[in-house]
Amino acid sequence: MQHYSMNLTLKVWRQKNKNTAGSFETYPVQGISSEMSFLEMIDVLNERLIKEGGDPIAFDHDCREGICGMCSMVIDGRPHGPWKGTTTCQLHMRAFKDGDVITIEPFRANSFPVVKDLMVDRSAFDRVIQAGGYVSVNTGNAVDGNAIPIQKDKADHSFAAAACIGCGACVAACKNASAMLFVSAKISHLALLPQGGPERKQRVVSMITQMDKEGFGSCTNTYACEAECPKEISVLNIARLNREYLGANLSGN
Amino acid sequence: MLDSKIPFGPLEERWTKYKGSVKLVNPANKRKLEIIVVGTGLAGSSAAASLGEMGYKVKAFCFQDSPRRAHSIAAQGGINAAKNYQNDGDSVYRLFYDTIKGGDYRSRESNVHRLAEVSTNIIDQCVAQGVPFAREYGGLLSNRSFGGTQVQRTFYAAGQTGQQLLIGAYQSLERQVALGTVEMHTRHEMVELVIIDGKARGIIARNLVTGELERHFGHAVLLCTGGYGNVFYLSTNAMGSNVTAAWKAHKSGAYFANPCFTQIHPTCIPVSGDHQSKLTLMSESLRNDGRIWVPLKKGDNRKPNEILENERDYYLERRYPAFGNLVPRDVASRAAKERCDAGYGVGSSKQAVYLDYAAAIQRYGKAEVNKKNMGNVSPDVITALGKEVIKEKYGNLFAMYEKITGEDPYELPMRIYPAVHYTMGGLWVDYELKTTIDGLYALGEANFSDHGANRLGASALMQGLADGYFVIPYTLGNYLADDIRTEAISTDHSAFVDAETKASDRINKLININGKQTVESFHKRLGKIIWDKCGMARSEEGLKQAIQEVRALKQEFWSDVKIPGEVNAMNQELDKAGRVADFIELGELMCLDALERNESCGGHFREEYQTADAEALRDDENHMFVSAWENKGVNGWELHKEVLSYDVVKPSQRSYK
């Protein structure tokens, strides 16, 4: 792999806090290596801003290995940037070339208010989980792990849904700011397993109710969520969610 | 005198006896007792959820925007449990023995035995929560092997085991939040411990969004804040992982144990340049199928696939025929460093070795051909089938490698090099996980207790969840049973006021330095000192130099650091500055501890103490103890020793040959 160095122009959304209006600021950056990660490129800019007496750009990030779900950002109009199935922290600068202008914004959704700059408040997701995204089993209640055999393909599909990192890119990608992919991933994860059985109907109803209460929009099947999901969670989960919801409502509680 | 409060009686009966005789708190009283849990990784989430379920009033804190982000989430390979589902001779005793031996005989027998005992309950609990572990076609749980063991006892969910376990614990935690037993405080960081009449009674936390300092009372405080690997600047830890909460506790009187026991993980993606902000691990499970090698010829610059089989040195297989590529982490890391230092490293930096899947791809490909009765097929078909199997086993790891390096590991061997991954040292705790401060507990990686001088793979998840689900719910009651008459103490109490003043003075001092150098630049320099002189190999001379350098760095930091922004607002640089200031102090203690320990054991390798064939040389006669350091403020530290006694296992020279 040939490495190269580039000069770029960054247009970055700056916003002091949730109560003030934000705007774009332009920052030229020089000598960026193609081997850097996208966030390391912002680190370089922030170091410069601090030295110049400016205010560094606030952004969420933690594991920097694509699994904690903390990083966000919309890069050139796409949540987590141009690479498919990749979080912002795993995006590397070889995705760009010398002279590029890169626009960087926070995730935009009413249910995700901006905290500062590129950082948003995604606590709505935690509250949706609180509404039923669990199996009600207290510590110490469990039977032997192998007492519950589970068909391998069901376990695999459940795992594929449970791989959701709760980053919110699906909401940011959706023109309606719908959280259906996130909610459906949790519903699928638990509905596919026998452990999730007893609370199956109640779970889907209360999670959907909470989702609506948080102000997330409706799903109109554009599948932008699936296209932008860094973990490539399938929209088939949304179909399953709809079936589960219908079934729960038809049979009553 | 350190009292580890190990119960009397035969080793395998101690935990059962303890549980049967421990004091209890009745449900009505539990509702009146408040518990603070700092950190929401596996230990913190599982503890907060379990204690909430029991009826205690819990307040949980994390610095991230959601408890689900804690760095346990990044653990890849798996979790050990002595289930013996594979009928391959595993047992509680063997898991106990392997852990003691893997830790190079520097951990406590009683704690480790308890860990092995509860390991099986953890798997059951996680399955019940709906953790989607990998399964066989018959529907039962699948296992794989891991370094340092000869049985298959590791449960896993592809390369995302930590994620799935944490989500299980997180969901249990959120369930308690919904029920009102747990109050969750996200984007909060503990900056001071509050002690009243010798007991931990609360914390001062900084709201990271507003910058406000908040006072929180608790009848007991649990620190579940993870390890301190970021003292090295570059590590596989998350960017925010820090020692601050544990360090505040240490400076308030909690002893810090074995700080020099740090784990360097053998299989990480090598550093690519000065811009590097963190390192990424490639799961140890990769060593099940990957073969590690370097060229036989020094400075061989050919591409890996141009180097013939007989021109390669599979040095682990050569040096350790019994365990081969599955030797424990400390052994594998040192062996890689030895080859690179000797001039056999690969890649542009020459600080890397190859991890190669070509043989595994062929082996799996041929097995698939047989399984599917395909008869004679072309080599291309075999390779393609083999790649499919590898993809199913390690797909996410291969994809991650490709994203970071831009190279396709299905075609070219991975380049790997050791990196800081885990810290075995931590706050000293007794059998009940209580620190030397009454009412202050440390769980998971934040304590020192179970892994000795080296942790085996897939044991960190096990320990975090053991402490949170199955140990603290019993041991905490034993303390709180005597506290049921203590009313909640007002946060107007002078101890809260003083602790808040202390925290705010420090923050103001930091921001008013207004020097020239960034926090990041200090952190990098600290990391380089510690990595060079207190990393994979240590020497008396190097450590003495390091101590001087760290002290000088501390002075420079406190006179020339530049922190932008305000105190009473979100300020990520200020958050980072507080953490780096603590890392600098810890760095000095690490070197001091490494200097004091005149032997090599596990991850602690002193160049002066090695066998003729360059293996770690322990000194059981003089160093079979836990170093527990008491902070003496400006006067440095005083060393206390907890002597380790082995009632069951007979310590021997660790051999994986």
Q: What does this 3D model show about the protein?
A:
The complex is a heterodimer of chains A (253) and B (657). Chain A has 253 residues and is α+β, with helices and mostly antiparallel strands. Chain A has helices spanning 38-51, 123-130, 152-162, 169-173, 180-191, 200-213, 224-228, 236-250, and strands spanning 5-14, 23-33, 74-75, 78-79, 101-105, 114-116, 119-120. Chain A folds into 2 domains: 5-116, Ubiquitin-like (UB roll), CATH 3.10.20; 124-250, Fumarate Reductase Iron-sulfur Protein, Chain B, domain 2 (Orthogonal Bundle). In chain A, strand 1 (5-14) and strand 2 form a beta hairpin. Chain B has 657 residues and is an alpha/beta fold. Among the domains of chain B are: 265-419, Succinate dehydrogenase/fumarate reductase flavoprotein, catalytic domain (Flavocytochrome C3, Chain A, domain 1); 494-636, Methane Monooxygenase Hydroxylase, Chain G, domain 1 (Up-down Bundle). In chain B, 38% of the residues lie in helices and 15% in strands. Chain B has 17 helices and 21 strands. Chain B has helices at 14-21, 27-30, 42-54, 92-102, 109-129, 161-179, 244-251, 315-319, 329-341, 358-371, 379-405, 460-480, 494-513, 519-534, 540-560, 572-596, 620-623; strands at 34-38, 57-61, 79-80, 154-155, 182-185, 188-196, 199-207, 213-217, 220-223, 256-257, 262-268, 291-295, 312-313, 353-356, 414-423, 426-427, 440-442, 517-518, 561-562, 625-631, 637-643. Chain B has a 5-stranded parallel beta sheet with strand order 5-2-1-9-17, sandwiched between helices. Chain B has a 5-stranded antiparallel beta sheet with strand order 11-15-14-12-13. In chain B, strand 20 (625-631) and strand 21 (637-643) form a beta hairpin. In chain B, helix 3 (42-54) runs parallel beside helix 6, helix 4 (92-102) packs across helix 5 (109-129) and helix 14 packs antiparallel against helix 15 (540-560). Chain B is globular, with a radius of gyration of 24 Å. The mean pLDDT of chain B is 96. At the A-B interface, helix 1, helix 2 and helix 3 of A face helix 3, helix 5, helix 6, helix 11 and helix 12 of B.
